[in-house]
Amino acid sequence: MAIEVGGEANPTPSEVVIAATGSRPGIPTYSIAPGTNVVDVAGPVAASGVVALWDPIGGPIAVALAEALGARAVLITPDQIAGNELSRTGDLAPANVRLQQKGVRIERRTILRAARPGEVELEDRFSGARRVLAVDQLVDCGFRLPDESVSTADIRIGDCVAPRTIHEAILEGRRAALAIDGVR
């Protein structure tokens, strides 16, 4: 299947602009006080201290990062179990065993309400009870949005279309290359 770009099927590479800009951080659902050490999941993680990981998705990213950080990590999830979406791959139970073995603290059934210098404010999802947890950094492992900064692109691939997995980015990149080269 040929992709039409600018009205011409299978243009040469000199005629095509491909956007593969990735994604950008989503809009936080919690308040952030000035001077708070909050980074997006793509940002640098503190080399020392307690790192809170906010995981509203329940996917593999926060779980993998928590596993790498070990006892320095506090994984905050609104779900009953950490990495809830890992059930689709069969890694839910093994991932939770690994987190326990690494000494990761897991805050289940918890919503992140505020991030302030040196602490995060958490709310129990069911009771509404609030508590404060001392942390050195917060890593937001939440939803991301498409990066549409290259508005003149003829073809858009990967997370700039919609944040997904590396599989989709590679597949779309291959399809774009084949379309440009005129290969079917």
- Terminal Cα span: 6 Å
Mean pLDDT: 89
Largest β-sheet summary:
5 strands, parallel
Low-pLDDT stretches: 1-7
Multimeric organization: single chain
Q: Look up the CATH topology of the largest domain.
A: FAD/NAD(P)-binding domain
| Top-tier CATH class of the largest domain | Alpha Beta
Strand order of the largest sheet: 6-13-7-8-9
Total of DSSP H or I helical runs spanning 4+ residues = 3
Could you tell me the strand content as a percent range?
25-35%
The assigned CATH architecture of the largest domain is: 3-Layer(bba) Sandwich
Report the order of strands and helices: EEEEEEEHEHEEEEEEEH
- Give the helix proportion (percent range): 10-25%
Radius of gyration: 20 Å
Task: Give an account of the 3D structure.
The structure is a single chain. With 184 residues, the chain is α/β, with parallel strands linked by helices. The protein contains three helices and 15 strands. The protein has two domains: 4-22 and 146-181, no CATH class; 27-142, FAD/NAD(P)-binding domain (3-Layer(bba) Sandwich), CATH 3.50.50. The strands form five sheets. The protein has a five-stranded parallel beta sheet with strand order 6-13-7-8-9, with helices on one face. Helix 1 runs parallel beside helix 2 (92-102). The termini are close together. Residues 1-7 have low confidence and may be disordered.
